[in-house]
């Protein structure tokens, strides 16, 4: 059985969504923020969630990689375009783009003190992080132009990953006017039954 180490309103959101959509049973362990125990550090050396322990007992970090693996292991759930689908390249591209560009910009905003040795520089790190989020979201908004879904012609984990990231934007009120295509996707996912259920425990956005 899978075991998901997570915490509300973190990257564990999309992994939990993937497991639920795949219809596979899993144990969920809440990892409180703060001082970790050694057992958790052994599977997550950066003390970050999510961590997924696989049925064979091995474990992995990195939300995008976890999503890609779950989609591969549960093809019947259509969590992503199939490995040989023409849409696969877009899926891999956007998952990696979102985790490397936007998720990391979120971390620079929320953990700004880690990204400067100048105590007076924290605000500048935060502002630069917002600019980088905005640059990435503009690219994704353009990719969504005239498309219902980010990848292919149906919901995939890329859409859920994008909505998770946009929900963390520190200037959330600007989403509808700045990125109308992302807002359109988000509005649709806010009505999705699994997202509604998950949001009740994660409080990613106002119900
Ligand atoms: N690259 C990792 C980032 C994971 C991450 O930064 N998780 C945050 C929560 S969203 C965390 O656990 N932060 C605690 C910390 O960095 O101390 C991923 O994509 O899974």
What can you see in these coordinates?
- The protein has nine helices and four strands; from the N terminus they run βαβαββααααααα.
- The protein has 207 residues and is α+β, with helices and mostly antiparallel strands.
- Strand 1, helix 1 and strand 2 form a beta-alpha-beta unit.
- It has two domains: 76 residues, Glutaredoxin, CATH 3.40.30; 105 residues, Glutathione S-transferase Yfyf (Class Pi), Chain A, domain 2.
- The radius of gyration is 17 Å and the shape is globular.
- Helix 6 packs across helix 8.
- The model has no long low-confidence stretch (mean pLDDT 97).
- Glutathione binds next to helix 3 and helix 4.
- The site of glutathione (GSH) has 14 residues, from helix 3 and helix 4.
As residue ranges, the low-confidence spans are none
Tell me the distance between the termini: 31 Å
User: Using DSSP, what is the number of strands?
Assistant: 4
Structural class: alpha+beta
Radius of gyration: 17 Å
Ligands bound to this protein structure: glutathione
CATH topology of the largest domain: Glutathione S-transferase Yfyf (Class Pi), Chain A, domain 2
- Can you identify the CATH class of the largest domain? Mainly Alpha
Number of domains: 2
Q: What is the mean pLDDT?
A: 97
Measured by DSSP, the beta-strand proportion falls in: 5-15%
The gross shape turns out to be: globular
Q: Using the 3D structure, state the CATH architecture of the largest domain.
A: Up-down Bundle
The profile of the biggest β sheet is: 4 strands, mixed
**How many individual helices?**
9
- Give me the side-by-side strand order of the main sheet: 2-1-3-4
Secondary-structure element sequence? EHEHEEHHHHHHH
């Amino acid at each position: 059985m899978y075991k998901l180490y997570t915490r509300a309103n973190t990257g564990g959101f999309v992994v939990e969504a993937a497991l639920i959509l795949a219809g596979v049973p899993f144990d969920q362990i809440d990892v409180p923020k703060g001082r970790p125990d050694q057992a958790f550090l052994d599977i997550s050396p950066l003390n970050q969630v999510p961590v997924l322990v696989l049925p064979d007992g091995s474990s992995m970090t990195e939300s995008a990689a976890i999503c890609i693996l779950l989609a591969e292991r549960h093809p019947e759930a259509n969590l992503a375009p199939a490995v040989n689908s023409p849409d696969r390249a877009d899926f891999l591209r956007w998952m990696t783009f979102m985790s490397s560009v936007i998720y990391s910009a979120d971390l620079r905003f929320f953990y700004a003190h880690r990204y400067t040795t100048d105590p007076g520089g924290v605000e500048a790190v935060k502002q630069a992080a917002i600019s980088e989020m905005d640059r990435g979201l503009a690219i994704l908004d353009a990719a969504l132009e005239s498309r219902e879904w980010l990848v292919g012609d149906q919901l995939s984990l890329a859409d859920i990953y994008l909505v998770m990231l946009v929900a963390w934007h520190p200037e959330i009120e600007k989403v509808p006017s700045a990125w109308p295509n992302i807002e359109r996707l988000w509005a649709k996912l806010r009505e999705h039954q699994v997202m509604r259920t998950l949001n009740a425990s994660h409080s990613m956005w106002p119900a």
